[in-house]
């Protein structure tokens, strides 16, 4: 019989995705301020988001494997410490150096390494703690997902409010949040002792290869949707942040509140979808179809309404609604249709795939905003319809996916 999991343990686990979400999304409304303070271009400011994500992309699968070998907590604790150090590097460089941009990027890379070993490891950790109780595990995962989505809503407001005081305070805030989470994890998460010897690396690779051989068709579609939705989300947030400040003169906390509106819609949609999926592949497939259809139809219009804040906010909120419904659906498809022995590995690879979208979104928008943004958004909409065709082709409820 499992020991009861304390409320503080659940809070500690939920704090990890909250910190990691704040650590990235909190900086999006501040990027135009960074451009002014550091005398850098929009493309250079977008790298502050991108290098974080690129670092995480390559480290997440390694962190997942290490957590199987040496334990979840032994990976999470130093990862949070790295996130803390990265924030200090970026913040102190902003205060004490004349040209801190390179040091800020170095700090963000360290934070990306920390993100790789923290948030993605929470999912298999929950499985370890509730190994014999799927219902409680699902409930705990729901709390953690709520924490993640709440972080998305909170981040633009917090980032804008802190930067309004002094522009480099958000870097130090990331370190402070990481320290709080680190203390919670260290003292309140008690992991069960290992029973089975983890697989050797060669076996690990063979098992992963076999999983992709058997399940690859629909898994590749799921990964593609993950990349696409996160690319669109972060591209639109970057675009919206830039347009509000530079064209409409809206900055500070007011801009943060406006940016939080589509994210709040995303959060609500995510919670509602998560509650109603119930392991039904027909429902999951329908959510993906409707969500991708909505994205494909609406994304091209974003570039034509940059002068109308209300219409822009309506469009981005509807796109947020689609993304919010899609993301928990993708999570459920992987966790409920992959054997437990391979679930952690596939989840880690899926997390890396999503970070590709996060990394690509801001710099692509910064490039196309100079010229050809409307054409790029039309192409993005067409891409959504292309992925929709793949859903019809490779994700079928009649098959044992």
From TrEMBL:
Residue ranges crossing the lipid bilayer per the database entry: 7-31, 43-63, 75-96, 102-126, 172-189, 218-244, 256-274, 286-305, 311-330, 351-369, 375-395
Domain Major facilitator superfamily (MFS) profile: 9-398
Subcellular location: Cell membrane
Pfam family name, one: MFS_1
InterPro entries (alphabetical): MFS, MFS_dom, MFS_Efflux_Transporters, MFS_trans_sf, Sugar_transporter_CS
CDD domains: MFS_YfmO_like (cd17474)
Gene3D superfamilies: MFS general substrate transporter like domains
SUPFAM superfamilies: MFS general substrate transporter
Domain of life (superkingdom): Bacteria
Membrane disposition: Multi-pass membrane protein
Keywords: Cell membrane, Membrane, Transmembrane, Transmembrane helix, Transport
Protein name: MFS transporter
Source organism of this protein record: Piscibacillus salipiscarius
């Amino acid at each position: 019989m499992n020991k009861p999991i304390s409320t503080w343990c659940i809070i500690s686990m939920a704090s990890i995705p909250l910190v990691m979400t704040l650590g990235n999304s909190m900086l999006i409304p501040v990027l135009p301020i960074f451009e002014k303070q550091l005398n850098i271009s929009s493309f250079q400011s977008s790298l502050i988001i991108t290098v974080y994500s690129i670092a995480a992309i390559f480290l997440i699968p390694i962190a997942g494997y290490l957590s199987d070998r040496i334990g979840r907590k032994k990976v999470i604790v130093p990862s949070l410490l790295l996130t803390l150090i990265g924030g200090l590097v970026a913040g102190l460089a902003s205060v004490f150096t004349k040209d801190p941009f390179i040091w800020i990027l170095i700090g963000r890379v360290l934070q990306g390494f920390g993100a790789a070993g923290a948030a993605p490891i929470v999912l298999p950790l929950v499985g370890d703690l509730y190994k014999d109780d799927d219902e409680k595990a699902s409930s705990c995962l729901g709390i953690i997902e709520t924490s993640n989505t709440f972080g998305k809503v909170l981040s633009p407001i917090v980032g804008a409010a802190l930067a309004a005081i002094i522009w480099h305070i958000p870097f130090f805030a990331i370190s402070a949040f990481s320290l709080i989470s680190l203390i919670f994890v260290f003292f309140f998460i008690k992991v069960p002792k290992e029973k089975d010897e983890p697989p050797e690396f060669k076996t690990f690779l063979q098992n992963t290869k076999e999983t992709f051989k058997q399940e690859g068709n629909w898994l590749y579609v799921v990964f593609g949707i993950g990349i696409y939705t996160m690319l669109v989300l972060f591209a639109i947030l970057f675009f919206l942040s830039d347009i509000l400040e530079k064209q409409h003169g809206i900055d500070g906390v007011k801009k943060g509140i406006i940016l939080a509106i589509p994210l709040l819609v995303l959060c609500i949609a995510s919670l509602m979808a998560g509650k109603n999926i119930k392991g039904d592949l027909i429902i999951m497939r329908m959510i993906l179809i409707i969500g991708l259809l909505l994205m494909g139809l609406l994304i091209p219009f974003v570039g034509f309404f940059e002068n109308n804040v209300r219409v822009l906010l309506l469009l981005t909120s509807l796109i947020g609604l689609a993304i919010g419904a899609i993301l928990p659906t993708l999570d459920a498809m992987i966790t409920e249709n992959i054997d437990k022995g391979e679930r952690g590995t596939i989840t880690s690879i899926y997390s890396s795939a999503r970070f590709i979208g996060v990394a690509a979104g801001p710099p692509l928008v910064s490039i196309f905003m100079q010229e050809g943004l409307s054409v790029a958004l039309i192409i993005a909409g067409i891409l959504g319809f292309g992925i929709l065709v793949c859903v019809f082709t490779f994700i079928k409820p009649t098959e044992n996916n």
